[in-house]
Predict the structure.
Amino acid sequence: MNFLKDFLLNRHSGQISFGLHRLTGVFLALYLILHTCINSVAFLFGATAYTRLTTMLNTPLAHAFEVIIVFSVLFHLFNGLRIMLVEFFFHLASRHREMVVGTIILTIAGTLFTAYKIFSGI
């Protein structure tokens, strides 16, 4: 509970990016487990079972979940790069806010592009 209290007291760009970085990391770890289980169906039960499963998962809700996954990957990627840049090049720490905004802009642009590609093919 102290984390939530600190988060609410220290609302700034670094705190928000820190929280989102943790959330997307946990989400991606959980997704990786789910993805491995789904792809194991082909190995364990054969190609027919895998085809049935993927056909069943070809729904708008599953496509929305894919967009959320892409958002998580992109934010985690760009925010991780931002963190590495600040760690290796200390003078960039003064540009922290601009780098967080850049991370968000790149993430939103990539997510919107992916959503367009996914949903235009339906």
Notes: Residues 1 and 7 are 10 Å apart (CA to CA).
